[in-house]
Amino acid sequence: MTAKHSDMYGKGEPSWRRSSRCPDGHCVEVSVQADVVLLRDSKCPERRAIPLAFAEWSVFMERMRNAVWGDSFDLATPTGPGL
Q1: CB contact set of 34 (below 8 Å; sequence gap of 6+)
Q2: Cβ partners under 8 Å of residue 15, min gap 6
Q3: Does 53 map to a domain?
Q4: Is residue 38 part of a domain?
Q5: 54 lies in which domain range?
Q6: 49 within some domain
Q7: Host H or E run for residue 37
Q8: pLDDT of 69
Q9: Residue 13, helix vs strand vs coil
Q10: Between 27 and which of 16, 22, 33, 64 could a Cys-Cys bridge form, CB atoms 3.0 to 4.6 Å apart?
Q11: CA atoms in the 13 A half-sphere facing the CB of 59
């Protein structure tokens, strides 16, 4: 049996968020905690979340931005697909 997130992190049940661009609910969900960012698959929320340190989260997000918008992504003026 997998431990609950509240048991793993001792912070109570995490609050999960997903992108507003997630049309069918099958997306990655994120929960920002005091010392870690948790990721989980919304299709299988009972599975253990993946904990990322804030530095790892920053690298993950930068790589996702570059994969979608290329190396020239600018938060102030996004020009990626669908924007």
Answers
A1: 11
A2: 31
A3: yes
A4: yes
A5: 5-64
A6: yes
A7: strand 37-41
A8: 67
A9: coil
A10: 22
A11: 5
Q: Which two tokens stand for residue 63?
A: 């790589």
Give residue 67's pLDDT: 80
Write the pLDDT tens digit of every residue in 15-34. Answer: 999 888 888 878 889 999 99
The domain total for the chain is 1
Q: What is the pTM of this model?
A: 0.63
SS3 38: strand
* Segments of the chain with pLDDT less than 70: 1-11, 69-83
**pLDDT mean across residues, the chain:** 76
Distance separating alpha carbons of residues 51 and 33, to the nearest angstrom: 10
Structure token pair of residue 44: 């299988």
Say how far apart CA 54 and CA 72 lie, in whole Å: 23
